[in-house]
Every structure is written in C-alpha cells, then in structure tokens.
Amino acid sequence: MEENRVIAGRYEIITEWDRGGMSIVYLARDRKLNKNWAVKEILKEQAVNGKEVSNDLLAEAKLMKNLTHQSLPRIIDIVDQDDTFYIVMDFVEGDNLKSILLREGAQSQERVIRWGIELAAALDYLHKQTPPIIYRDMKPSNVMLQPDGALKVIDFGIARFYKEGGGDDTTHLGTYGYAAPEQFERSDGPSRTDARTDVYDLGTTLYSLVTGITPETDPYFKPVPIRTINPSLSAGLEKIIIKCTQPDPKDRYQSMEELQKALLNYEKLDDEYVSSQRKRLLKAFLPFAVGIVLVLSSAGLFTANAVINANTYESLLLSTGDQEKDTDNLKKAISIRPDSPEAYEKLCEELSTDQDGLTEKDAQVIKEAYSSITKVKPGSDEYLEINYALGEDFLVYFTGNSDDSVRNRLINAETFFNAIVQTGKTEYEGYAMSQAYVSLSEFYKSYILGGDSEFSKEAGEKEYAQFLKNCNRVVSAAGQSDNAQLKLTACAIVIDMIDVKSSDLAMHVDKKTVEGILDQAGTVLENETGLSKEKTNEHLKRVTDVKKALAESYKNAAKKEEKTE
C-alpha cells in the first residue's frame, strides 16, 4: 500500500514495517485515537499450502480479538475490504530474540529460564481458550523483547484451533529445526498438533537461546544435551529441554502448566544442585554438638533449614534504602515465601515510590515475581489476598509507558482480579468487587476498544444494565475504602466509561440511573479528605462536564426518536 492511504476511514498508513510469506505489515496511525497500530494486510487469494485463505482466517482472527494477555498483541480491529483482510493490532516495539541471538550469542541461563516461564504462561493461556488455540510457530524470531524487558509473541499466521477427533492438519506448517515432528507430513499416517506440539517448539526455542545455535536451516536437526555444548549449564534445565523435545508427544510435558512448573523448579531437577545443598547443610551444622546433629538427622535437618529460611525471609523484607537492592531482596523473599502477601505488597510499594508510578518495566518485575503464585493453593486465603492487593496496586499506581489512562490501569489489574473470580470463592469479601472490576474491563474491551469497526460488538439494554450495576458497585465500594487514591481511580474509571458511552446509554437506559451514579461518584470524591483540594475540584468538574454531555446525548436521542415516530 502507498503511504498516507487510509483504511476504513480511520487507519492512515505511515510506512511498510515488515513482510513475510503470507502478509505485509504496516505501521499505521489511528486518526480517531491518535495512536500507532500495526496493520497486517492479507490477500484473500493468498495461497497457503495450496489452499486459499478462506473465511476460517477471518473467523479465527475475530476470535483472537477477544484474547487479553500481557505477552500477546491485542487485535483491535478487522477490516474486510474487497479482496483483502486488514488486521489491526498492537504495534510492538523492540527487537526479536533471533536478532539478539545473532548479535550477542547464547543468552544467560537465568534469562532464558525467565523467558521460558513467560512464554509458557502465554501459550498456556492460548491452550485454555475454548476451543484451545495451538500456536505452532514458536521460535526466537517470533518473540519480541520490548524496551521494558517484557516479551510479546507475534505472528499468528499458522495458529489453529484444536478440534477434538479431527484428521490430519499439519502439512509442512512450522519452521525446520524448531517445529515438532508431527507438524510435517508423515509416511505412517495422519499427524495432528495439540498443546504438546507447542511444548516441543518452546523446548527447541529454549535450546537455541541457551546454546546460541540457530537450527532452522537443517530439516533433520535434533537437539543434543545442552551440557555437551556448555558444561556449565544446569542439569535440571538440560532434563527439561530433553523432555520437551521427545519425538513422541506422549513422552513430553503434557501441558504448558507442567512445563512452567518444571522451569520454576529447575534447580530441584539438578542432581548437582541437590548434592551441593546437602553438603552445604552438613557443613553449616558441623560446629554443633554431635548429640544435636544426631537428633537433627533426617527430619531435623529440614526443621533447621526452615528456621534459616524464615530468618532470611524476615531480613529480606527490611529496607536498605537502595531501591535496586531492596527490589532484588523482595523478589528473593517471594521465592522463599510465595504465600505471604506482605512481600508482594512491599515490592509494589518499593517500585511505585518514584514519580513514575508502576511503569511497564516495574510491572514486568512484579509479574515475574507473581509467577511464584503457582506454588500457592488457588482459593486459599493467601492466594486471594495476594491477588486482591496486586489488583488494587495496579489500579492505583500503574502508569504504563505511553498510556496511563484509568481504563488501561483497569485492563492491567484485571489479571489479578480475574484470578480471584476464577476460584469461585464467592464468600471472599473481595469477590464481588473483583467480579465488578473484571466485568468493567471486559465491557471496555468488548464495546469500547473495538471502536466503530464492522466487527466490533454492540451492547444492548441487557449489557448496559449490567454495566451500570457494576459501576454502582465500584463507586459504592470506593466510598467505603480508606485508600484515597483507590477512591479516585475507581470513580475516575466509572466517570470515564460513562462519558465514552453516553450516546449509547441514552438509547438504552433511564437518564436518572446514570446521573445517580455520577452524583454518587461526586459525593465520594467530595467527602474524601485525603485528596488535595485541587485534585478534588478537578474531578468534580469532570463529573459536571460528563453530566452536561450526558444531558446532550439524551436530548439528541429524544429528537431522533421523535423523527422516527
């Protein structure tokens, strides 16, 4: 496409950014939101394995539009024009891992394991969709390292939905060296891909990153044990990669969740680590009396180790005045006691103390530490408290790098509130509020973020009634909170969303109901003494302005109805 061309009257093409076998990607400017997006152009007649791109591509893209995960780019819009599909998605800045690998060589073991945990979580999210989405093209060049250190998985060109009981689906789809054997034609009958296919592909990706070997030019490539290449690497990581890359899917990890847990505990799989830990414990207790050593043998050693860990945990919570050191200490404290809400809250507090609040980089640090939540029993009091505290912290302090709107805070906080909702623990005192925040976030993504595209959802009377019910719940709870900043954020979310949807609200719900919620938000803000007078007046003026806009919307709706009659 030529520069300055406008798609769907909204997306102005700035320049070509990338091109592959199936598509061309452009950098485009959204005239409505004044924001940059990536626009992927796909010709409908483009051949894929001898088959034309059909309506299945559009159906899959529309379903993927509803996905929300920090490691996946959002699909914002889908435009169907003449002989072409245009898929509008997040523009991902940064460098792909293959470029980093070619430039820097093998990456550190710690970095690769951290990346592996993050990628496994993203693929696990895809696999848990209904129906499951199998990515099928995990490799370094399809992973972007963003400036803030977070990863984004890109290029869903050959992703597919898993169909139970289906036939062969995998004729030469994937990248040699990284793709599982079942992704290519087999002489012994049909072959199908499932979640274990992505386990293999991620295993070869980790192999490449930690050894520096890029195997995509070799169709017969098979990974060798990583310690034959670099003897200093972990035996535990070696075992994990070997298990991931077994030719038979039955011999691999059976899910991304299994693989993620293995990576989190790779040291426990390392025979050398286990041996060194035993020697360290014995050496630490040699000064004690022989009688005490005998008493502590077997179970007693574990008791002593627990005491040491407890003392270490408490000391790691103490501030040193050095933010970088305190951050590292708190991350270690979380790894020791992943079920203690205190360390998570202190980490958020430490990272949000400067004027920038919680940036994308800070958020990534918190999310890496949060991966330890897998060791905490879902639904336990500790699990619920950790997620609720993190949800509130992201609501109040998250600033992002380019979008610090209250709606963006809500979307980023949703991960933690949704974890609470998924437990089904309705008796938990924060459950109703968590559900309300999740519902508002889903409403925003479904009915606001999509804009005016042909494929965006339209809310009706039922959806708006539920929306206002959640707005009322959020504002009411904000009024009872002791946290002034949380009150401000909660009310601002509701005021902002009502403002954006005022025209549609005027078509579906009673004016007094909406005005009542705005008045209630104004009262909450007016009665909060913890906010500066300037800040309070700023938001009270916002309430007044939105009420005026709302009145105008209802007036226009009435005129439209009169004309119709």
Describe this structure in words.
This protein has 565 residues and is α+β, with helices and mostly antiparallel strands. Helices cover 52% and strands 10% of the residues. The protein contains 20 helices and 13 strands. The strands form four sheets. A six-stranded antiparallel β-sheet has the order 1-2-3-4-8-7, covered by helices on one side. Strands 9-11-12 form a three-stranded antiparallel β-sheet. Strands 5-6 form a two-stranded antiparallel sheet. A hairpin with a 2-residue loop joins strand 5 (47-48) and strand 6 (51-52). The model is unreliable at 47-54, 162-172, 288-302 and 452-456 (pLDDT under 50).
Short description:
The chain is α+β, with helices and mostly antiparallel strands and 565 residues long. It contains 20 helices and 13 strands. The strands form four sheets. It has a six-stranded antiparallel sheet with strand order 1-2-3-4-8-7, with helices on one face.
User: How much strand content do the residues show?
Assistant: 5-15%
The largest sheet has its strands arranged as 1-2-3-4-8-7
Task: State the distance separating the first and last CA atoms.
Answer: 46 Å
The SS-based structural class is alpha+beta
For this entry, give a set of tags.
single chain, 565 residues, alpha+beta, Phosphorylase Kinase, domain 1, Transferase(Phosphotransferase), domain 1, 3 domains, six-stranded antiparallel beta sheet, three-stranded antiparallel beta sheet, 52% helix, globular
Q: In terms of topology, how is this protein built?
A:
Elements: E1 6-7, E2 11-19, E3 24-30, E4 35-43, E5 47-48, E6 51-52, H1 55-64, E7 75-81, E8 84-90, E9 95-96, H2 97-104, H3 109-127, E10 133-134, E11 143-145, E12 151-153, E13 160-161, H4 195-211, H5 235-244, H6 256-264, H7 271-285, H8 290-296, H9 299-316, H10 323-336, H11 341-351, H12 360-370, H13 381-397, H14 406-423, H15 431-447, H16 461-480, H17 484-500, H18 502-508, H19 511-526, H20 533-564
Antiparallel strand pairs: 1-2, 2-3, 3-4, 4-8, 5-6, 7-8, 9-11, 10-13, 11-12
Helix pairs in contact: 3-4, 3-6, 4-5, 9-10, 10-11, 11-12, 11-13, 13-14, 14-15, 15-16, 16-17, 16-19, 17-19, 17-20, 18-20, 19-20
